[in-house]
Prior knowledge:
Blueprint: H1 6-34, H2 39-65, H3 71-79, H4 88-109, H5 125-148, H6 153-167, H7 176-182, H8 196-218
Amino acid sequence: xxxxxxxxxxxxxxxxxxxxxxxxxxxxxxxxxxxxxxxxxxxxxxxxxxxxxxxxxxxxxxxxxxxxxxxxxxxxxxxxxxxxxxxxxxxxxxxxxxxxxxxxxxxxxxxxxxxxxxxxxxxxxxxxxxxxxxxxxxxxxxxxxxxxxxxxxxxxxxxxxxxxxxxxxxxxxxxxxxxxxxxxxxxxxxxxxxxxxxxxxxxxxxxxxxxxxxxxxxxxxxxxx
Length: 225
């Protein structure tokens, strides 16, 4: 982990989570308003904005907090002993609290009711499989790039999510915190609150599989010891 105290790291996590969640939800609202009913165009605009803000916040805040902005990533780092378990809850609370502020700010910007609940159904084996695969790929990208190409992480994560928006059935939430926060916005990027638990379960399963595979792939070959 970067050599900063916990307060500075949590502040960085909160700032990054705010802009990531605002970027996803705000660009979804803007895209839906401007796309004239063309869902593919709206998704493309949402994708570009999300990938762009990911690159910026990871490059800017990664040296401070590690740039998790995602409980799945926080869990993966804890399992890899790159983050003390005693700090996991603080990281996740910072991500969620900043996300809640972000969704309220987005609704204010677009003259919408601050308190909302999504009515967009996202359920079924296809959606859950998509979320498991999306999160697995994201966590594996981070762990392998961190070992071999750490300087590429901002671009690699941004490009992975940009691609996963389109090759997964769920449009790649890949983040338990943003899944919860999206349920608070009845907009293009929303998810019905009742669908959140199984989305999060799929994300956590994908995280555990990625950590296990990365641990095996990155273990030193005994023959080379």
